[in-house]
Automatic annotation (TrEMBL):
Segments traversing the membrane: 39-60, 66-86, 98-117, 123-141, 146-163, 169-185, 215-233, 245-265, 271-288, 317-334, 341-362, 368-385
Record key words, sorted: Membrane, Transmembrane, Transmembrane helix
Organism: Halobacillus mangrovi
Name assigned to this protein: DUF2157 domain-containing protein
Keyword Mitochondrion: no
Domain DUF2157: 12-142
Length: 398
């Protein structure tokens, strides 16, 4: 029940002499007013920053160097001082939008100044400087908008480094993992964990593919994210790191279902001694953690992190892992009467069945017949699982 509902309902309770007016006030105080997110002002800041960039880009070549530097420094100071003044006057939303605009101008200024003096950077170092500015704003103002902006800057910089220079930028990685990771660990805020976990997955992809590591190192990186979950979550919070790691490893197993059957991919996956050492250490730690956990059923998640790429039939084994994961959560959900587990197992089972159908029947079956039979199969599965779910709910209510 939210604050508005409490205000409305408690008025009736007072009129019915169920509670006193004092008790009503105490109840309402337990539901503080929610602060609206400054979405419009944030977008306003982004549009102003883009407008600045567009104007500079279209008139840049016609300006003198002093005019260019004057525009960059003047705009930067104008927006920064304006944001600082607004924050001092407690106009936090306006101040945040002005400071965010200043941050965008600062980043644009780095690249434009380099272009003006013919300085070419052969790394993503400008993004590192830009991210330091974003991080500094976060520590000065303790505002999550600047944290998100810094995560975006480091992640975009890392993608840029991977695509243009085919390398993972070490300092951006250090800043992201230890600087922003420390903020997530210290504050344990769900939104920050979500943004960081998305950035972590993208950083992992850039690290593996730009540095030429075999793709299976992603299993280790996703398993590390899974284990880090305990450090960044409070009791009762949604486990963002763990959910992100599970979703990522599900996608990776799906990739294996479709590609491990080809000789090219199998030949590329020469076994790595170091990989198995690192994986074994993390996996044993995960098993111990699951064993001492209050919920021993979470070992089911670990099935997905088992590496199967060295087997000639790794595609089939990946499919077996996915089916095992889905069925074990379904069975555990029915046994323990946990609706969330039943729903998770049902969705995983339907998706895995669809994957198996595509993998096994696509090559030799007529396309029309393929989709027709696939549709009937999914209808039958949905009917059966929905029937079981309804029986489960009725049993639970009884």
């Amino acid at each position: 029940m939210n604050r508005d509902q409490i205000v409305k309902e408690s008025k009736k309770w007072v009129e019915a002499h169920i509670i006193s007016e004092t008790q009503r006030d105490q109840l309402i105080e337990q539901y503080p007013k929610k602060q609206n997110k400054p979405v419009l002002l944030t977008f306003a800041a982004i549009f102003i920053g883009l407008g600045f960039l567009t104007f500079i880009a279209s008139n840049w070549s016609e300006m003198h160097d002093l005019s260019r530097m004057g525009i960059i420094i003047g705009s930067l100071l104008l927006f920064y001082l304006g944001g600082e003044y607004a924050c001092r006057k407690h106009a936090d939303r306006l101040g945040t939008s002005l400071l965010l605009t200043a941050l965008l101008i600062f980043g644009a200024g780095i690249f434009l100044t380099g272009q003006m003096y013919h300085y070419t950077s052969f790394s993503a170092f400008p993004f590192f400087v830009w991210a330091l500015a974003g991080g500094s704003l976060y520590f000065l103002y303790q505002n999550w908008t600047f944290f998100i902006a810094t995560v975006v800057i480091t992640t975009v910089g890392q993608v840029y480094s991977g695509i243009v220079f085919q390398s993972y930028h070490l300092w951006l990685g250090v800043l992201f993992l230890f600087g922003l990771g420390w903020v997530v660990y210290k504050n344990k805020v769900t939104m920050a964990s979500l943004v960081f976990s998305i950035g972590y997955i993208i950083h992992s992809l850039v690290l593996v593919f730009s540095e030429g590591f075999p793709y299976y190192w992603l299993i280790v990186l996703f398993l590390a994210l899974y284990l880090l979950d305990d450090l960044v979550v409070r009791k009762g919070q949604i486990r963002i790191f763990k959910s992100s790691a599970i979703l990522s490893i599900l996608v990776l197993n799906t990739f294996q279902v479709f590609f491990l059957g080809y000789d090219y991919w199998f030949d590329q996956n020469e076994s790595s001694f170091y990989f198995f050492i690192v994986w074994a250490v993390l996996f044993v730690f995960a098993v111990i953690r699951s064993a001492i956990s209050t919920n021993n059923y979470y070992w089911i998640d670990l099935i997905l992190f088992v590496p199967v790429f060295r087997f000639g039939f790794g595609d089939v084994l990946s499919l077996v892992l996915l089916f095992g994961y889905a069925l074990l959560w379904l069975i555990s959900g029915y046994q323990q009467e946990v609706v969330r587990w039943v729903n998770k197992g049902t969705v995983a089972f339907l998706v895995t069945t669809l994957l198996a159908y595509f993998q096994l029947a696509w090559d030799f079956m007529n396309r029309s017949l393929f989709f027709f039979i696939g549709g009937l199969l999914l209808f039958a599965l949905s009917f059966f699982l929905e029937r079981k779910r309804r029986q489960f709910h009725k049993g639970g209510e009884a």
